[in-house]
Amino acid sequence: MRIERRFTHRGQSPYEGLPFVKRSSEIRNPDGSTVFKLENIDIPEPWSQLAIDILAQKYFRKAGVPQQDEQGNPVIGPNGKPQLGGECDSRQVFERLAGCWTSWGKNFGYFKTPEDTDAFHDELRYMLAHQMVAPNSPQWFNTGLHYAYGLSGPAQGHYYVDPKTREVVKATNAFEHPQPHACFIQSIEDDLVSEGGIMDLWVREARLFKYGSGTGTNFSKLRGDGESLSGGGRSSGLMSFLRIGDRAAGAIKSGGTTRRAAKMVCLDLDHPDIEEFINWKVVEEQKVAAMVTGSKICAQRLNAVLKACHVVDDAGQARTEVDAKQNPILKEALAAARRDAVPEAYIQRMFSYAQQGFTHFVFHEYDTNWDGKAYQTVSGQNSNNSVRIPNDFFATLEADGDWQLKRRIDGKVSKTIKARELWDQIAWAAWICADPGTQYDTTINEWHTCPEDGRINASNPCSEYMFLDDTACNLASLNLAQFFSTEGQFELENFRHAVRLWTIVLEISVLMASFPSRSIAEKSYQFRTLGLGYANLGTVLMRQGIPYDSPKALAICGALTAIMTGEAYGASAEMAAELWPFPGYAKNREAMLRVIRNHRRASYNAAPEEYEGLTIAPIGIQPQHCPPELLMAARRAWDRALELGTAYGYRNAQVTVIAPTGTIGLVMDCDTTGIEPDFALVKFKKLAGGGYFKIINQSIPASLRTLGYTETQIQDIVNYCVGRHTLQTAPFINHETLRQKGFDDATLARMESGLAQAFEIQFAFNKYALGEDFCREKLGLTDSQLNDSNFNMLKTLGFTQEEIAAANDYCCGTMTVEGAPFLKVEHLPIFDCANRCGRIGQRYIAVDAHIRMMSAAQPFISGAISKTINMPADATLEEVKSAYLFAWKSMVKAVALYRDGSKLSQPLSASTDSGKIVEASSEILSIAEKITERVLVRYLAKRRPLPARRNGYTQKAVVGGHKLYLRTGEYEDGTCGEIFLDMHKEGAAFRSLMNCFAIAISLGLQHGVPLEEFVEAFVFTRFEPNGPVKLNDRIKMSTSIIDYIFRELAVTYLDRYDLAQVQEEDLRMDSVKMDEQDPECVEEEATPETLASASISSEMFPSRRGAIPRHKGNGQGNGNGNVAHSVELKRETLTLTAIQMARQKGYEGDPCSECKQFTMVRNGTCLKCETCGTTSGCS
Questions:
Q1: pLDDT band at 889, cuts 50/70/90?
Q2: How far is it, in rounded angstroms, from Cα 545 to Cα 547?
Q3: CA-CA distance, 683 to 812, in Å (whole number)?
């Protein structure tokens, strides 16, 4: 390959004219605590602090690098060997990357002459140093460590294809053949432990995660829940294995850096477990919410009980009183704890704790931090989930037809569900927790370049790489802003040059790479897929004064994408001419050329009927809105790509994707990622390894200059948006007022140094920024205040919320341009972002605008587009469904939605919560004053099973002279899950009707219908019999038997004591049968004396061990009674005679779950039945 120089000169350093300076990198938490710090590193002077932090924290090699002194000589350690350490100069990183690629390319014939080799090396280093392009993170992590530093280590089970022999070889060194690929798609077989099976996939995933790569898999081959196994058992289903894989991924971060494991889980829409898969994250998010809320309630209530146990008597002596009858404060605390469903075992534990003299009980409280303990406890948090939707489903949906779910083994229909219902579930889950995304299977495979080798079943974690199973793709992204001059002119030849060089870089990366399995090594060699893309499109549009949501923006996006992919395919065809086409090309030649012709047609905006083999026609470049030079360049690029490809074939089956560029975009100082608009003008990003970045859009001044604003006006607008980063002359909180509070010059200087990165000024006022000694001695703050994560130092110093807000706007800005001085209303759309900006911003880009931008780029991308469609918090379910449908009709391959606030925690924020406290408090108070509130309910599509042995209570009552037995069954958390009804001396028809009614209510409860809904529906139902109620000490009157049942349930389970009584005027009394002679109608109470005379002795049958009645009940005597009284009576069943006999024979006394015999013996930590062999554990 011939390599020209466009940025460098022969014989000169590629860094000529680029000054390097000593800088430091320090990343802090919002409270000021340091997460990472590295000093005296050499960095190009134009780089921002944010780019420096990314390079230093994430991409610098931390160990094994030979150290050099200032003259470049090796540093020798005390042992006489070179001293090793970490990288500390950005040029070290640029050299090990560019040098490694150049070395491999030179050794395997990619360059015509030594001059081409040198030019390639210099041009790459220039572009890296000038932030023109960046490869994916695994390249920064892994590439060149052996080449530059001679690092070696034991192999990790990787494979590679030897370029000389073209045979698959197992790696013997972990560094010689690096893992530069970011994106993998792996297959899985329906087998537990064999190669290619379920457990083998987790091992292969671990190899990828360790080196910073991500992977995706379609799990549709795995059997559904309950499908038969070869050994005669039943499958535990797909979800059980997905939970295992998720937890394994969550434990891995690449090399201990801040990059988390990334994976995609795909599932076909006809899988038997598709409904559970769709709702997986919904349920897990609810678990986190329950854990967070429950832990705080338990901590509060249990410590209140513990505190109440300690009293002071009349003599002033402290003592412990655990009898609620003698301790009214304890009685109140117990009532509050039980009302909030605090476990009784913990409540009882507080009595013992108090008696031992303890005054505080440590109950771990969880929070909604996305890398906190609560999220680590639940599953589904380490993957993106997507459903694969074929066009057949949309046809069925449009016809309101039925959709069949099919078993994996025999293909038989396991369930039929309305397509509309399944579509609603997808939309609901996406609305509530941002997953699953949608992948449009038919569209994806109609643009497949190699269909002869199989279908495309899955994608990488971010949905931009879509190809065959067991293949890989390495990415690089061009910074579009670096290819526009200061006057806004697109530097076309520089862009073409960069595309050509980086297509070669990615091809060489395939040559030198190793892979986590033999299959991936073989297929990556055979198809050689690449992923060149771009970043900063949103910035380019903003700087040129073009709104993201405009026809001109769509045309520019389409043209730039067409030029990039057309030129990349042209370079691939050049390499095929000089080397050879990819090995799989011959078999797929016609299919690939068909796809290339369709790409070319889109550049010419061809009519829909001209496209070959497409169900949905793409949206081509609109000539009337596209700059002529871009339109001409796009068409020429595709003319050349088709011409060369027809003649020589292609070196690569795919060449481009649009990746998310989240981290590499930051190292290039991009304001926007990939094809995205800006998330917000000022953002707050949390890192997986701890710490935060404050990210400010740097394009606002350039855009304002393009629009014709003066420098004074620009400065005022920028100050309004991002603040002045100082409190020196701020209103209310400034150096003068702070000196009055005790601040000295040194402390003010420390505080000022942290304001530039502070999201709000509160973050600069803490013990880390000011010093603990100063806070204690000068400000008089206590350790408990300083250690409280919610402590607001400014409020403690006497500043009001309004004063803090005013100073904050002066220092940190409003984070929006809405309301800025001088800014014209017609220019506001140019600065619109994906979300509302700051606390006062109201504008944001419409949902459909995101999809239109994707549809403008997709016709010119080999793979797909990683893009999030941002939706405001108040978006509706119908808007979610509309967005998914619009994306499919727009020929987009995949879509991921994110409704603001749909996650309990999110890594990227446009504002913080601290400023909302005042507003929220009044709202909370107004809500609390309401007697009732409307609850938004999601009915579960799947039945929630009750435990086999469950608690509950039986309540007997006489309603209008008719005897009724009400029995409840409960879940482990004490909520009602079923009811049983029986009538005394009633006809078969009426008793059967009541039985069926009870079954219907029970099924509703088990499918998620709240008890409140039944209570609202059936209370005050009027029919006979009705009237007085006996044997219930709370409900004395009812309008019907149904009315009584739901009053009783409301009082017991919902604390609806307002429903305990009915006025007589609510009754409609006609003829009511009264059976005065029935002994059951006589209220009576069992006493120890009557029990003693009975045939069953209360002493022979002790209460079940550890049993604590769950309800106080509403009965009198033979109802549920008082808790203490019922414990005292120790009522049990006759089954205990069998238990006692079993224990006398040496058995444990527990019944077998299978044969029901009392022949269970201890077997390790489990129980084993001597009769049938069943165990209670895993043996």
A1: very high
A2: 7
A3: 12
Strand partners, 388: 268, 439
For residue 193, what are its two tokens? 């432990």
Beta bridge partner(s), residue 43:
21
Amino acid at 689: G
Express each pLDDT in 303-353 by its tens digit: 999 999 999 888 888 899 999 999 999 999 999 999 999 999 999 999 999
- Answer for the pair 224, 176: CB distance below 8 angstroms, yes or no: no
Single-letter amino acid code for the residue at 784: S
Q: Locate 844 and state its tokens.
A: 């944001």
**Can you read off the two tokens belonging to residue 441?**
């299977």
Which of these, 805, 811, 815, 837, lies nearest to 758 by C-alpha position?
A: 811
Question: How far from the centroid of its chain's Cα atoms is residue 994's Cα?
Answer: 46
Secondary element (H or E) of residue 474: strand 471-479
For 1018, list phi and psi in degrees, rounded to 5.
Answer: -110, -15
Predicted pLDDT at 1091? 39
Residue 1097 carries which side chain, given as an amino acid letter?
A: S
* Angstrom distance (rounded) from CA 47 to CA 33: 25
Helices (H), 492-536: 492-512, 518-527
Provide the pairing of β-strand 402-406 with 384-389.
Answer: unpaired
Query: Rounded CA gap, 481 and 84, in Å?
Result: 38
Catalytic residues: 460, 462, 464
Is the pLDDT higher at 191 or at 756? 191
Please give the pLDDT value at position 1055.
82
User: Are the beta carbons of 463 and 386 closer than 8 angstroms?
Assistant: yes
* Residue 1026, both tokens: 């009705």
Lowest-confidence region among 64-68, 361-365, 443-447, 906-910: 906-910
Q: Are strands 214-218 and 183-185 parallel, antiparallel or unpaired?
A: parallel
pTM: 0.73
Question: Helix, strand, coil: what percent of the chain each, to 5?
Answer: 40, 15, 45
Q: Which residue has 């000196």 as its token pair?
A: 739
Distance separating alpha carbons of residues 1168 and 1150, to the nearest angstrom: 10
Q: Which residue intervals of 108-131 are DSSP H helices?
A: 114-129
Segment (H or E) for 290: helix 280-309
C-alpha span between 133 and 478 (Å, rounded): 4
Strand extents, DSSP E, 213-345: 214-218, 262-268, 310-312, 318-320
Neighbours of 492 (CB within 10 A): 14
Residue 815, CB half-sphere, CA atoms under 13 Å: how many? 29
Size of the chain, expressed as the number of residues it contains: 1179
Residue in 189, 405, 398 with CA at minimum distance from that of residue 277:
405
- Which DSSP symbol is given to 1030? E
- Per residue in 1029-1084, pLDDT (tens digit) is 888 878 888 888 999 999 999 988 888 877 876 544 444 444 343 444 344 444 44
Element of type H or E holding 820: none
- Burial level of 672, CB count in 10 A (0-12/13-18/19+)? buried
Q: C-alpha dihedral over 105, 106, 107, 110, to 10 degrees?
A: 60
Summarised one tens digit per residue, pLDDT across range 584-632 is 999 999 999 999 999 999 999 999 999 999 999 999 999 999 999 999 9
Distance of alpha carbon 475 from alpha carbon 510, whole angstroms: 11
DSSP 57: I
Task: Give the 3-state DSSP-derived string for 1080-1120, with helices as H, strands as E and coil as C.
Answer: HHCCCCCCHHHHHHCCCCCCCCCCCCCCCCCCCCCCCCCCC
User: How many C-beta neighbours within 10 Å does residue 362 have?
Assistant: 9
Question: Sheet of 962-970: strands edge to edge?
Answer: 976-983, 962-970, 954-959, 1027-1030, 1037-1038
Tokens of 548: 């993201």
> Could you give the maximum distance between any two Cα atoms of the chain, in Å?
116
Judged against a pLDDT cut of 80, whether residue 1133 lies above it is answered with: no
CA angle 269, 275, 280 (to 5 degrees): 115
The count of other CB atoms within 10 Å of the CB of residue 501 is 23
